């Protein structure tokens, strides 16, 4: 079974990178909305500061 190697051209690579970074930014943005840092800090202190 021989596997053909895909040739990725530079412009395709650029598009892939752009898309990856866009997705990463979107995920990061959603996490920022979901996770309130002050609330997380309070939970952390309650759990681990004894």
TrEMBL record:
Name assigned to this protein: Uncharacterized protein
Protein source organism: marine sediment metagenome
Organism placement in taxonomy: unclassified sequences, metagenomes, ecological metagenomes
């Amino acid at each position: 079974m021989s596997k053909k190697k895909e040739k990725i051209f530079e412009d395709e690579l650029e598009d892939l990178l752009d898309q990856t970074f866009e997705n990463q930014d979107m995920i990061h943005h959603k996490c920022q909305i979901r996770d309130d840092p002050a609330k997380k800090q309070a939970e952390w202190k309650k759990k681990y500061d004894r």
